[in-house]
Design brief:
It contains eleven helices and no strands. By secondary structure, it is an all-alpha fold.
Amino acid sequence: MTLPKRALMLALAIAAVAAFFALDLHHVLSFETIKARQAEFVAFGEHHPALTVLGFLLAYALSGTLPLPGAVIITVLAGALFGTGGGFLVASATGAIGATFGFALSRYWLRGWLSRRYATQVRRIDEGLARDGALYLFTLRLLPVLPFFLINLSFGVSAMRMRSFWLISQLGMAPGAFVFANAGSQLSRLDSLHGVLSPALLGSFALLALFPWIARALVRMVRRHRSVS
């Protein structure tokens, strides 16, 4: 990417983040706000379903490319508007598309520059993919050690194909989407999100993330045992 294009992208990103906070959207996307205005949100969703789904897609696309808070609250809101099943489908589908948008932006607009600027980090991601394949991204999606947008931008400069990124992201984000959509469907009975993000739930996600690794280790042990015997 040429310097003018990089400068334009940086300026647009800074402007978007500044506008987000200047318009007080970080307060709008809060648990207290969506609970207090739940009836208004539901009424809007019922009268404008297509526009509402488009809004979720835009929100996930922005959070998938910029350091903006609110991804969890957006999923909770989907559950409040569409119920557990509908909220899960909307959040899961639009969330994966939003993540893939960040991936595509990185690959087709920023890849050359990021590859040069963060050559060491890009090499580590490619080494992780070569060693662990899809499990590498799947684990990050279940228990992200990087913010949502950084995962998308980082994998955009990796060797992973876009279709694989979308599919693995869809699968990896599904458990969290279901949990938070279900919480949103019971919004009127919740006092905060602390009960949703309980140690037991986080432990369950950790076990889910570890299960494919444990299964693969067991398969390797069986194969080694057979080769020895």
